[in-house]
From TrEMBL:
Lineage: Eukaryota, Metazoa, Ecdysozoa, Arthropoda, Hexapoda
Domain (UBP-type) ranges: 28-125
Subunit (UniProt): The U4/U6-U5 tri-snRNP complex is a building block of the precatalytic spliceosome (spliceosome B complex). Component of the U4/U6-U5 tri-snRNP complex composed of the U4, U6 and U5 snRNAs and at least PRPF3, PRPF4, PRPF6, PRPF8, PRPF31, SNRNP200, TXNL4A, SNRNP40, SNRPB, SNRPD1, SNRPD2, SNRPD3, SNRPE, SNRPF, SNRPG, DDX23, CD2BP2, PPIH, SNU13, EFTUD2, SART1 and USP39, plus LSM2, LSM3, LSM4, LSM5, LSM6, LSM7 and LSM8.
Stretches the record annotates as Disordered: 1-22
Location of the protein in the cell: Nucleus
Family: Belongs to the peptidase C19 family.
Source species of the chain: Arctia plantaginis (Wood tiger moth)
Entry protein name: Ubiquitin carboxyl-terminal hydrolase 39
Protein's UniProt keywords contain Metal-binding: yes
Top-tier EC class: hydrolase
Domain of life from the UniProt record: Eukaryota
Record's keyword terms, sorted: Cell cycle, Cell division, Hydrolase, Isopeptide bond, Metal-binding, mRNA processing, mRNA splicing, Nucleus, Phosphoprotein, Spliceosome, Ubl conjugation, Ubl conjugation pathway, Zinc, Zinc-finger
Length: 482
């Protein structure tokens, strides 16, 4: 079969790119398949040509793992195949295999594992099995790993992102939604709006983390973080440490918006999983100055109690201030507090004083609706004019059977018929100095009921009793099903 000369064509931007040359007759047998080196294949990074840095028409060399553009003569992939004697290439977009420089398509079922690593696909049956699967998987270098409990690479200072992504991967409705690409493939965004890429990247990351046939026992979140840097307008970067709660708040809201979410509770998988509601009672306090306080009419509308309904994605728990002075016997004792003590802020009766520049307010918070997944943010850091201070108080919390019904009013509690018991599925903690420390995550592997500690690439099993001794910072609780 004759091969037509490859022709130049103009793309929509008007710059000349090499068009795809027609392939020769398909060869089922390729003599170079044994040169493929699966140990060097890594599809976690941006799909860019390593020479021209273009994203168009990129091929991965399956011998050395590098990315090159094009397939026709004079392209970077063609030149590489001739110069380095590497012959088998994979088109990263169409997932087709080619032999260069002969330029024929290779069809061989032994290559399906490479295709699956680049684009893992899950059927509804496989997703159902994830909650029961206790089988370990083996990476290509012999390392054993549990799908879903996989280390994330720290590029420089992105551990604050890694811990959030690890915990969100354990939220079942979120995981099940993003494992099936067709769930969000048809979401339409306005012209020129590319924020949907954030959704696609998160879906790709979750599929790679839960991939039972991965070549290596860790994943690099490089493409996911590139999307984060771009859509947060460099507010969150992987070369500079940030606060995980800021990232979590921004990330959940951005995903919600990118999935065309509205203010309605069930408008996206994000709101379905995390959205709760509370009632806030606010009353203005008279000024502390005695003379001015005497002039105040407390019965006026200005000083009457205001009630507002407010949705929430997470609850902020305030730690009691650390004691300023300790005697010689207590100097080594770290203050401790019970989780229920922190949650009493939301029982509708405990008042908390809020100070602004000019005025003081008394606020009460009453939860009116609990979400299926409840996120608690334990406020450890306080910023003043000069520095950031960390509160080292240890929070005592149960890992199982936490009844949030105890903080609800009797009327709201009656609505739930006793279904207010939650279990911890994710726990994030901070180690070290306020501005220099690192973050770790504890996640629960549901089928085995085993807890794992994850710090970037390091994954180790941990006893649940050890989790309660740490300086917990962000926690995710799951409503216990019957």
């Amino acid at each position: 079969m004759s091969i037509k000369n490859s022709q130049k064509r103009k793309n929509s931007e008007g710059n000349g790119i090499e068009s795809e040359p027609p392939t020769k007759t398909i060869h089922i047998q390729c003599p170079y398949l044994d040169t493929i080196n699966r140990h060097v294949l890594d599809f976690d990074f941006e799909k860019l040509c390593s020479v021209s840095l273009t994203r168009i028409n990129v091929y991965a060399c399956l011998v050395c793992g590098k990315y090159f553009q094009g397939r026709g003569t004079n392209t970077h992939a063609y030149t590489h195949s001739v110069a380095d004697d590497h012959h088998v290439f994979l088109n990263l977009h169409t997932l087709k295999f080619y032999c260069l420089p002969d330029n024929y398509e290779v069809i061989d079922s032994s290559l399906n594992d490479i295709k699956y690593v680049l684009n893992p696909i899950f059927t509804p049956e496989q997703i159902k099995q994830l909650d029961y699967n206790t089988k370990m998987s083996r990476a290509i270098d012999g390392t054993m790993y549990m799908p879903g409990i996989v280390g994330l690479n720290n590029i420089k200072a992105n551990d604050y992102c890694n811990v959030i992504l690890q915990c969100l991967c354990q939220v079942r409705p979120l995981r099940n939604y993003f494992l099936r690409e067709e769930n969000y493939a048809n979401v339409k965004r306005p012209p020129g709006d590319s924020s949907f890429l954030l959704v696609q990247r998160f879906g790709e990351l979750i599929r790679k983390l839960w991939n039972p046939r991965a070549f290596k026992a860790h994943v690099s979140p490089h493409e996911m973080l590139q999307a984060v840097v771009l859509w947060s307008k460099k507010r969150f970067q992987f070369i500079k440490q940030s606060d995980p709660i800021d990232f979590l708040s921004w990330f959940l809201n951005s995903l919600h918006m990118a999935l065309n979410g509205t203010k309605k509770p069930n408008s996206s998988i994000i709101y379905k999983s995390f959205l709760g509601h509370m009632r806030i009672y606010t009353r203005k306090l008279p000024p502390p100055d005695a003379e001015e306080a005497a002039k105040v009419d407390l019965s006026s509308e200005e000083y009457s109690e205001m009630i507002t309904e407010s949705p929430f994605m997470y609850l902020t728990c305030d730690l009691p201030p650390t004691p300023l002075f300790t005697d010689e016997f207590r100097e080594n004792i770290i203050p401790q507090v019970n989780l229920y003590q922190l949650l009493s802020k939301f029982n509708g009766q405990t008042s908390k004083e809020n100070k602004t520049y000019k005025e003081n307010f008394l606020k009460r918070f009453e939860i009116t609706q609990l979400p299926p997944y409840l996120i608690l943010y334990i406020k450890r850091f306080t910023k003043n004019t000069f520095f950031v201070e960390k509160n080292p108080t240890v929070v005592n919390f149960p890992v199982k059977n936490v009844d949030f019904g105890d903080i609800l009013t009797p009327e709201v509690k009656a609505k739930y018929n006793g279904k207010t018991v939650y279990e911890l599925v994710g726990n994030i903690l901070h180690d070290g100095m306020p501005e220099k420390g690192t973050y770790r995550a504890h996640v629960l592997h549901k089928p085995t009921q085993q807890w794992y500690e994850m710090q970037d690439l390091h994954v180790t099993s941990i006893l649940p009793q050890m989790i309660t001794l740490t300086e917990a910072y962000i926690q995710i609780y799951e409503l216990k099903q019957d």
